[in-house]
Amino acid sequence: MPRRFLAQLNPLHKTILACVFLIPLFAAPQCAANDWEHQETHSDARDFSAAGFVHVRLSVGDMHIRRGDSNKISLRYTIKSRRESSLKEARVDFDVHGNDATIEFHAPSSANTQFDVELEVPEKTNLYVHDKIGDMTVEDVEGDKDLTLGIGDIRVDKAREGYRLVNASAGIGDVNGDGYGETSGWLGKSLKYRGEGKYELRAHVGIGDIKLGGK
User: Fold this and answer.
1) Which one, of 108, 74, 106, lies nearest residue 93 by Cα?
2) Consecutive H or E run containing 140
3) Which of 84, 55, 42, 21 is nearest to 145 (CA)?
4) Is 57 within the bounds of a domain?
């Protein structure tokens, strides 16, 4: 009976059914956010070249990236965990080679552990950020952006005049871009914009919303 029932569902119904079961599983670490028993805050800074490329990978946690006032990458992050042993096992790989930087956050998969990240980059920086669960904010950074998020919200504040191409989409959720044109879609929304600038913005969230700001 269950197999026959699933076979009769159309793709949209299957998507909705999958989300009903999967969202509680993915949201579990976030629900425990107020129960963190162990926390540690660290900071690091590296010299960097303007107009360079910064690649960031994060599994669970919030990411806030903003423009700094120097040619440095300044990183400040807080590790939160319900187990002290997991707190000690978590680590960050921060590597800079010329105009290319990679920041990867690693947490044990056996316990609820997350990173809250604040990152300052030079005014002109190309960003490639991939997060699985959390919220992502990028403020006033010039450059190409490739932002991917599994579950959560993405917010980008940067004048749209700086972009020649914007492609934003939500698998399940909304896309809001004042002045960027109309969105399309029903269960998931998408937005495409072409302007006179020189940068590209590509943003995608699996489940969540995207907000594009700037005038």
Assistant:
1) 106
2) none
3) 55
4) no
Residues 6+ positions from 18 with CB-CB distance below 8 Å: none
Name the DSSP class of 122.
-
Domain that includes residue 9, residue range: 1-31
| Count of the separate structural domains present in the chain | 1
The pLDDT tens digits of the residues spanning 89-126 come to 999 999 999 999 999 999 987 568 999 999 999 999 99
Say whether 48 sits in a helix, a strand or coil.
Answer: coil
| Residue 201 falls inside a structural domain | no
**Residues 69, 54: Cα–Cα separation, whole Å:** 17
What gap in Å lies between CA 85 and CA 100, rounded to an integer?
Answer: 32
Residue 63, token pair as written in the block: 């990411």
Q: List the beta bridge partners of residue 193.
A: 166
> Residues 93, 63: contact at Cβ < 8 Å?
no
- Integer Cα distance of 7 and 11 in angstroms: 10
What is the tens place of the pLDDT at every residue in 43-89? Answer: 999 999 889 999 999 999 999 999 999 999 999 999 999 888 888 89
CA torsion, ordered 81, 83, 85, 89, to nearest 10 deg: -20
Does 205 fall in a domain?
no
Question: pTM for the complete prediction?
Answer: 0.83
Whether the Cβ atoms of residue 112 and residue 74 lie closer than 8 Å to each other: no
